[in-house]
Design brief:
By secondary structure, the chain is mainly α. The protein is built from twelve helices and no strands. It has two domains: 1-91; 112-285, no CATH class. The protein is flat. The relative contact order is 0.08.
Length: 285
């Protein structure tokens, strides 16, 4: 560990001008040491490693407006690859890891695809279900916030792709009369389908439920609501999104609304806010 830290100190000091390594290479070398600390099982080393991850996100030397073509070298992929099993960490460490991922997805240079977003959502869901029913929801709250930000950030990326494609279309005289390029929003389908399938399983269409934890359904409903709220109205013109909505999501929501709350989301205190199912239906209108 000491040798790694010494090498990293020399490496970061040498990053000057044209001699700078690509950000993903610099991240990979630094994350080697941080990975060893995260997997050490020592609380002090884990805390220091998480602080290192947080500082990495604030250092411009580790960021780039253009990521490598290799998805395994993207910032968030590299972060996820060094994480230890969440069950090996304290609740405080779990919350801080979620904060690191949340900060990564908030960066203007964040790059992601469906596989990466689903991977983040799955990790956050696992953390939510680790919290005992009725226990402190500190970890679950952090995980929910991270998952929602991940899908919102992905929707924002698609908005940028749409605006770029629309600008190119308007600049071309031969394409000026074409329909707006709403097909770019079809890229959200794998993430959308994943969330719909999880909700559909909770609704009882399939015999196996992804989790019996009371927070599981709430997590997926809230994450899908965040995604739908972030997508513009023009996404309604995407055939794939519409088909997924009417063939799977809408019937699942109807079944959930027709079932006793205690059977689906566990016994919860009375609340004045509309349940997520209702909010999702309103988002679809």
């Amino acid at each position: 560990m000491e040798d790694l830290l010494s090498q990293l100190a020399h490496l970061t000091e040498s990053q000057q001008g044209l001699l700078r390594d690509p950000p993903w290479e610099l991240r990979a070398r630094c994350l080697e040491a941080l990975r060893a600390a995260l997997h050490s099982g020592t609380n002090k080393l884990v805390t220091l490693a998480i602080q290192g991850l947080q500082k990495m996100l604030r250092d411009d030397r580790f960021a780039s407006p253009f990521e490598s073509d290799d998805e395994s070298l993207w910032l968030t992929t590299q972060l996820l690859d060094v994480l230890p099993p969440m069950t090996s960490l304290t609740e405080e460490a779990q919350v801080e890891i979620m904060r690191v991922l949340l900060n990564a997805t908030c960066q203007s240079s964040w790059v992601a695809n469906n596989a990466l977003v689903v991977r983040i959502v799955t990790l956050c869901h696992q953390l939510c279900t680790l919290t005992p029913a009725g226990g402190p929801d500190m970890v679950a709250t952090a995980a929910q916030a991270t998952a929602c930000q991940a899908v919102r950030g992905f929707a924002a990326m698609l908005d940028e792709d749409y605006e770029s494609a629309l600008s190119e279309q308007q600049d071309s005289a031969s394409r000026a009369e074409e329909a707006p390029p709403v097909q770019v929003y079809e890229d959200v389908l794998p993430t959308y389908r994943h969330l719909c399938q999880q909700i559909d399983q909770h609704a009882g269409k399939r015999p196996a439920s992804p989790s019996g934890h009371p927070a599981s359904l709430q997590f997926h409903l809230s994450t899908l609501l965040a995604l739908l709220s972030a997508l513009p109205v023009r996404v309604q013109r995407c055939a794939g999104v519409l088909e997924q909505t009417w063939r799977q999501l809408t019937p699942a929501l109807v079944r959930l609304l027709g079932s006793p709350t205690s059977e689906r989301v566990g016994a919860v205190p009375a609340r004045r806010d509309p349940p997520p199912c209702v909010l999702l239906i309103l988002a679809l209108i």
